[in-house]
Amino acid sequence: MLDHTVRTYRADEPLARTDQLAWKIADVAAEQLEPTPEVTDMVINRIIDNAAVATASLGRAPILAARSQAEAHPVSRGGAGATIFASEHRTSPEWAAWANGVAVRELDYHDTFLAADYSHPGDNIPPILAVAQHLGRSGAELLRGIVTGYEIQVNLVKGICLHEHKIDHVAHLGPSAAAGIGTLLGLPNETIYQAIGQALHTTTATRQSRKGEISTWKAHAPAFAGKMAIEAVDRAMRGQTSPSPIYEGTDGFIAWMLSGPEARYTVPLPTRGEDRTAILDTYTKEHSAEYQAQAWIDLARRLGTERPELREPKAVRSIVLHTSHHTHYVIGSGSGDPQKYDPTASRETLDHSIPYIFTVALQDGAWDHAASYAPERAARPDTVELWRKVTTAEDPEWTRRYHSSDPDEKSFGGRVEIELSDGDTIVEEIAVADAHPYGARPFGREQYVAKFRSLADGVLAPEEIDRFLDVAQRLPELGADELSGLTVTPITDPAAGADLPGGIF
User: Fold this and answer.
1) 3-class DSSP state for residue 471?
2) Got the DSSP string for 54-78?
3) Which domain holds residue 65?
4) H or E stretch including 387?
5) One domain for residues 263 and 393
6) Is residue 464 in a domain?
7) What is the pTM of this model?
8) Are 313 and 193 contained in the same domain?
9) Exposed, middle or buried: residue 380 (CB in 10 Å: 0-12, 13-18, 19+)?
10) Tell me, what DSSP letter sits at residue 478?
11) One digit per residue, pLDDT tens: the chain, 505 residues?
């Protein structure tokens, strides 16, 4: 890997195009490399993972709305169209990316990478797959495109923090998806460079979508970035240009959206010929909740099982989760969001409330993507009473470990201190989730397949489950005609009989 220093350049200060970050990203994307076997296996795992969580969300309102929007658009004339989860219709690739992206993201249940910023790199898959289906590309070409999408997003997340400036993390997704599509299509550096600039320019938004009363837009935000990436590549292929330099310009991204003209960022990128292995640094979720809650769910389940008295509010005086800066301020009491303690809050809000999540996992000894968020579950009086005794506190050591580049000490957990009503104290800690590569039960192909089968049970017929898994696991050898198999058809169409409000389309 080679570290690239990125900063603002004055209008009268020369900066060659080839020295711009967008060009360097395009240079990585334009190189056609065969993925390693380990990387290939992980891409397959994440395609299965995406389909699993999308299948579990097919009947939810945001998915039905996004799907109906996509179905309102015919296949564009440039190709055969792309598939939509649960639908018999094909549509234009940008709208397929939109609908499928919302389905993948809705339950906050797919993969993650956390470093200087946050990301869900699996969000790259819907737009890249949609373009591959539409233009009749092979499984091998799709594989290379997805590898690039992960590579670019992970390395942008390692180098550039968006959250401290309240910029939503999808600002890294637009460029990564555009780069991945560029690899998929074998586009030249110049075209990919222009697409990256447009994708960044059109996908920069504030983090209010993940603050306070969190709305259904949380699931739509990455789907929008994927849709914009496809449109940006299309425009760039037609010879249209972008704001430049998009990162380094006087009125550019760093100068006005990030830390200002004096700031310096260091973004690592692979050198020419170097294997693209960033996907191996990412990790999926065993539980449907924000990633920084994963380890806490595992710890809470264990504590509640070993010490069932902790489930009773009268037995507990206080619970303090000592954790990283990000966990405290994003999903903890440090956010200052009263909604994180509101039993009538939306599901989207509750899955970003570690006080709620820890309480329910402690009491139930389990976590379920539906039951754990049910309104009646959130409103249970003993849960509300215990929940309001749970707070978070930033611990500098856990913040340091959160940002560590050493995988042996990088962690996303913390230390819980429980003060009991009788004066005793319980102290336990956990560094990473059980499913993490360094956790107690790391996820491999068997666990990804099991997750898919579990979430698809009762939604897809057994033969449909087997069919999808067969197609996904043959990804590198798939022909263009077989890529249409990377979708799912449920036993009962969740849109059938649904009273969906109309829109413009």
Assistant:
1) helix
2) HHTTTTSHHHHHHHHHHHTSPPPTT
3) 2-281
4) helix 381-387
5) no
6) no
7) 0.94
8) no
9) middle
10) -
11) 999 999 999 999 989 999 999 999 999 999 999 999 999 999 999 999 999 999 999 999 999 999 999 999 999 999 999 999 999 999 999 999 999 999 999 999 999 999 999 899 999 999 999 999 999 999 999 999 999 999 999 999 999 999 999 999 999 999 999 999 999 999 999 999 999 999 999 999 998 887 777 788 888 999 999 999 999 999 999 999 999 999 999 999 999 999 999 999 999 999 999 999 999 999 999 999 999 999 999 999 999 999 999 999 999 999 999 999 999 999 999 999 999 999 999 998 999 999 999 999 999 999 999 999 999 999 999 999 999 999 999 999 999 999 998 888 999 999 999 999 999 999 999 999 999 999 999 999 999 999 999 999 999 999 999 999 999 999 999 999 999 999 999 999 999 988 889 999 9
Residues 246, 309: one domain? no
Among candidate residues 241, 261, 281, the one where a domain is terminated = 281
447 in a structural domain: no
Instruction: Judge whether 458 lies within some domain.
Output: no
- 206 and 117 part of one domain: yes
Q: Do 132 and 92 belong together in one domain? A: yes
What is the distance between the alpha carbons of residues 83 and 95, in angstroms, rounded to a whole number?
Answer: 10
Domain count, the chain: 2
Q: What is the DSSP string of 291-324?
A: GGGHHHHHHHHHHHHH-GGGGSGGGEEEEEEEE-
Do the domain assignments include residue 452? Answer: no
The answer to whether the CB of 40 falls within 8 A of the CB of 477 is no
- CATH number of the domain that 295 lies in? 3.30.1330.120
From CA 393, how far away is CA 209, in angstroms rounded? 24
Query: What six digits make up the tokens of 308?
Result: 């069932």
Nearby residues of 430 by Cβ (< 8 Å), 6 or more positions away: 295, 296, 298, 299, 413, 414
229, two tokens: 């990436």
| Whole-angstrom distance, CA of residue 89 vs CA of residue 74 | 9
Q: Which of 430, 452, 474 is the last residue of a domain?
A: 430
